[in-house]
Amino acid sequence: MRQRWAALVAVIHEDERGLNTAEMLGNAALAIAALLVIWAGLQALGVDIVAWIRASLLGG
Q1: Three-state secondary structure of 1-60
Q2: pTM beyond 0.85, yes or no
Q3: Quick check: 1 and 8 in contact, CB under 8 A?
């Protein structure tokens, strides 16, 4: 009985299928955080960027 239990624990311990899900969730969270930082930066600089593009295109 103990050998069967030890074998089952060893199989469960070596199973890494759940690790892929955790990694993907972590990567998704980091991607969302990066998008929020980029969005906030563009919000802050958006008016300046639009003015610069207008000035470049219209020569003003």
Answers
A1: CHHHHHHHHHHHHHCCHHHHHHHHHHHHHHHHHHHHHHHHHHHHHHHHHHHHHHHHHHCC
A2: no
A3: no
